[in-house]
Each structure stands twice: as structure tokens, then as C-alpha cells.
């Protein structure tokens, strides 16, 4: 079946080769209201500026939970005949039919950040992402190293069921369960809204004064979590770990409010994602999975090149 699908795609691509050789690459992310996704935009821009055949557009819903809006954006890109799509799907199931339609229309799709459902395999050409399970385990190891093996750890998550969340939060929790006696409080879902994460964390800190650790699993969630810790006067009283690397999170690390934050290669997702589409359109082979990596940034390494290359 997979070879049949690939053959079908090649046939459609051949029929539309004149259209596909140059034109618009649509970069569609989970939301445009986050610095993380704006850094993906910068990476995509860098890839486009390095060549002259293709242009690109950057779009995304107002919030990560506006899944229907993102589906419409993919459908609109297909309808206007884009040459390729770079997509960070907000929902693994809901975006799959639109990606299948792109495939049937001969439009190559590269998925970034979060996986689609397994049933969608064969309808996109590459997946670029942090290994979120490995990243979650790295954060869990740091939590045990800093907080010890006894007590409560709150998990502040973002959108339930998203591919990146399943790996990141799931493997964090599983590693703690297998390697410590730490008790998980949560997870709580902020819907990637900073204000909601702040309110949730404020409530959790008040109702669990004995917390030894807390993990904010993406940018808006970790920022809201950090602000709640600051407002509660609990900085330094529990081990706080974040995910992603905008200016707020960098400041939390520098001030010692946050022990460390795990930072993905968001710029690389945009740059390598667009380059993968360009390579596909040129008839070149691309790897089916490209790991864009993660760096655990703390006070000791925050000014090193390794950290500065992923912070934004």
C-alpha cells in the first residue's frame, strides 16, 4: 500500500510538474501569537532568502486550540495551488484529511513539531521535530537531580492529545514513575494560554504548599507558571523547569526562578522544513524523519554558543 501511495504521489507530481517547480510554499503553524512560532517564521524566511525560485507565506490561528481555523488554512492553501506546505498540526486527527487532500493534489507536505495520526503516514514526505519523548526524559532526569526522589511534582501541560504533548509530558511522567517516588500532580492543560497557566499555577501552589517541583511543558505555559511562582513569592522554594526559550524564560533562568528550560530548535524547524520542501520539488530525496534537537539551558550554559543558537 505504501509503494502504491508513493507511486500515486509521483504520478500526480509529474502531471503538475510545471506548476510545482516554483511558487509559494505555505508555512502553517499552530498559532502566530507565540515567539516560538515566530522563530519558525524566521527560519523559513532564511531558507527562502537563500534561493530565488520560491516564495513563502506564514500563517496560523490566533490560538493553538483553534483547530478548525488551521484546517481551513490548509484547505485554502491547497485551493490556491501552492507548490508545497510546511505544517505544524495542532491536532493529529483533525489535520490528517487536509494533508491527504494535499497529497492527492500533488502538493508535497512536510510536517514539523507534532506528529499526525499513524493513519496519515504516506500522505506527507518528511517529519521534522524534537524527539519529544527523549526531551521529556531529559527534563525528568534534571527534576530528579535537583528535587530528589520524594515529594510532589506538578505538571503544567498545554493541549491534551497533541503529538508533541503526548511524547513530552508522557515520557516525563513515565520516567519519574520508573525512577523515583515523586508523585505527579496533574497534568493541567493551559490550552497554550499564558494567562490560564498563570491562574492554574497560582491555584496549584496554594493548594499544594509542599510541592518540590513543577514543570511547564511549552512556552506560554512555562511563562505563566514562572509569573505565578514569582507572584506567590515562591522563587527558589521549588524546582521549576520549563520548555522553550523566549526572553521571559531566559530571564527566569538568569534570575534563578527557573532551574533550566529545554529549548527546541524552532528556527531549524522553519529553515529545514522549507528546505525539505524545496528539495522534494527538485526531485531530491529527503529523510523521512529529521531530529531538530533540544538543549537544556541553565545559568551555567545560557551564554554559550550552543544555547544562544536556539534561544530566541
What's the main sheet like? 6 strands, parallel
Protein structure class: alpha/beta
By CATH reckoning, the class of the largest domain would read: Alpha Beta
Outline the low-pLDDT stretches: 1-8, 10-21
Report the portion of residues in β strands: 15-25%
CATH architecture of the largest domain: 3-Layer(aba) Sandwich
Order of SSEs: HHEHEHEHEEHEHEHEHEHEHEEH
Count the beta strands.
12
Q: How far from one another are the termini?
A: 42 Å
General description of the model:
The chain is an alpha/beta fold. It folds into 2 domains: 2-130 and 266-293, Response regulator (Rossmann fold); 132-263, Response regulator (Rossmann fold), CATH 3.40.50. 46% of the residues lie in helices and 20% in strands. The chain is built from 12 helices and 12 strands. The protein has helices at 2-15, 17-20, 35-49, 67-79, 96-104, 132-147, 163-179, 194-207, 219-231, 247-255, 266-281, 305-308; strands at 23-28, 54-59, 84-87, 109-112, 126-129, 152-157, 183-189, 211-216, 239-243, 260-264, 289-291, 294-298. A 6-stranded parallel beta sheet has the order 2-1-3-4-5-11, sandwiched between helices. It has a 6-stranded mixed beta sheet with strand order 7-6-8-9-10-12, with helices on both faces. Helix 5 (96-104) links the parallel strand 3 (84-87) and strand 4 (109-112). Helix 4 packs parallel to helix 5 (96-104). The longest helix is centred in the middle third of the chain and has 17 residues, at 163-179. The protein is elongated. The model is unreliable at 1-8 and 10-21 (pLDDT under 50). This is D-allose-binding periplasmic protein. Its main location: other. InterPro entries: Peripla_BP_I (IPR028082), SBP_2_dom (IPR025997). Residues 1-22 form the signal peptide. Keywords: Signal.
Amino acid at each position: 500500500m505504501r509503494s502504491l501511495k508513493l507511486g500515486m504521489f509521483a504520478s500526480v507530481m509529474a502531471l503538475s510538474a510545471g506548476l510545482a517547480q516554483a511558487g509559494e510554499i505555505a508555512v502553517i503553524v499552530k498559532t502566530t501569537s507565540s515567539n516560538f512560532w515566530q522563530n519558525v517564521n524566521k527560519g523559513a524566511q532564511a531558507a527562502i532568502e537563500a534561493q530565488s525560485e520560491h516564495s513563502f507565506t506564514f500563517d496560523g490561528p490566533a490560538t493553538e486550540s483553534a483547530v478548525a481555523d488551521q484546517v481551513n488554512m490548509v484547505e485554502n492553501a491547497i485551493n490556491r495551488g501552492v507548490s508545497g506546505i510546511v505544517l505544524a498540526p495542532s491536532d493529529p486527527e483533525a489535520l490528517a484529511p487536509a494533508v491527504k487532500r494535499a497529497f492527492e493534489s500533488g502538493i508535497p507536505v512536510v510536517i514539523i513539531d507534532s506528529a499526525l495520526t499513524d493513519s496519515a503516514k504516506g500522505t506527507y514526505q518528511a517529519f521534522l521535530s524534537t524527539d519529544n519523548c527523549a526531551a521529556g526524559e531529559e527534563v525528568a532526569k534534571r527534576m530528579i537531580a535537583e528535587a530528589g526522589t520524594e515529594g510532589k511534582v506538578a505538571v503544567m501541560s498545554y493541549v491534551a492529545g497533541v503529538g508533541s504533548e503526548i511524547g513530552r509530558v508522557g515520557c516525563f511522567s513515565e520516567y519519574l514513575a520508573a525512577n523515583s517516588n515523586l508523585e505527579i500532580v496533574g497534568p493541567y492543560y493551559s490550552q497554550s494560554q499564558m494567562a490560564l497557566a498563570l491562574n492554574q499555577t497560582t491555584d496549584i501552589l496554594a493548594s499544594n504548599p509542599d510541592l518540590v517541583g513543577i514543570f511547564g511543558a511549552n512556552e506560554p505555559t512555562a511563562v505563566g507558571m514562572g509569573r505565578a511562582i514569582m507572584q506567590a513569592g515562591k522563587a527558589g522554594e521549588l524546582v521549576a523547569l520549563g520548555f522553550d526559550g523566549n526572553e521571559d524564560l531566559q530571564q527566569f533562568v538568569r534570575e534563578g526562578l527557573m532551574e533550566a528550560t529545554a529549548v527546541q530548535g524552532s528556527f531549524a524547524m522553519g529553515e529545514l522544513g522549507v528546505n525539505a520542501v524545496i528539495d522534494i520539488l527538485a526531485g531530491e530525496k529527503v529523510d523521512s524523519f529529521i531530529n531538530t534537537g533540544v538543549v537544556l539551558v541553565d545559568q551555567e550554559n545560557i551564554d554559550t554558543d550552543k544555547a544562544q543558537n536556539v534561544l530566541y
